[in-house]
Write a structure and sequence with these properties.
This protein has 143 residues and is α+β, with helices and mostly antiparallel strands. It has helices at residues 2-47, 135-142; strands at 51-52, 59-60, 67-70, 78-85, 115-121, 127-134. The protein starts with a helix and ends with a helix.
Length: 143
C-alpha cells in the first residue's frame, strides 16, 4: 500500500513540475519568437523590402505572400488578377484588422470578397500591380 502512495505522490509531483515549467518558460519562447519577428521586420524595413497588403494594410514580412489569382493568357504584358488578401486577413481576419477597398473605402466581405487588379509583367522580369477596386465598385464602372 505504501508503494502505491509513493507512486501517486511522485506522479503528482511530476505533474506539478511540468505545469510550473510550462507556465514560466513557455512565455519566454513566445517572447523570443516575437523578438525574432521584430528583428526580421526591422531588417526588411532597412532594405526597403516591406510591402503592405492592399486589403487590410498590414505589413508583410519577406516570405508572406498575398493570396491572389492571375488569369490567362500568361504571355501578355497586362493580365487580370484578383487579390483575396494576405495571411493576416485571409482566410480568417486577425483581431483589429478591417478588410477595406482602397478605391471606394467600403468593407470587403470575407467569403467571396476580393480586389480586382491589373498585373503588368515588365521586360526585366519585375511585376507591377495596380488595384482597380473591389468586386462591387469595379462592377459599377463597367455598366
Amino acid at each position: 500500500m505504501l508503494i502505491y502512495f509513493i507512486a501517486a505522490a511522485a506522479f503528482a509531483f511530476i505533474v506539478f513540475l511540468l505545469n510550473f515549467y510550462i507556465k514560466h518558460f513557455s512565455s519566454g519562447i513566445e517572447d523570443a519568437k516575437m523578438k525574432a519577428k521584430n528583428v526580421r521586420r526591422e531588417n526588411a524595413q532597412k532594405k526597403g523590402l516591406l510591402v503592405s497588403c492592399p486589403v487590410c494594410g498590414s505589413l508583410l514580412l519577406p516570405g508572406e505572400d498575398l493570396v491572389s489569382r492571375v488569369y490567362r493568357p500568361m504571355n501578355v504584358p497586362d493580365q487580370l488578377c484578383t487579390i483575396n488578401g494576405c495571411p493576416h486577413c485571409y482566410p480568417s481576419v486577425e483581431p483589429g484588422l478591417k478588410r477595406t477597398c482602397p478605391v471606394c473605402h467600403k468593407e470587403i466581405p470575407l467569403g467571396d470578397g476580393h480586389l480586382v487588379a491589373r498585373l503588368f509583367n515588365k521586360a526585366e522580369g519585375k511585376k507591377h500591380v495596380i488595384v482597380t477596386g473591389c468586386g462591387n465598385c469595379c462592377r459599377g464602372k463597367n455598366s
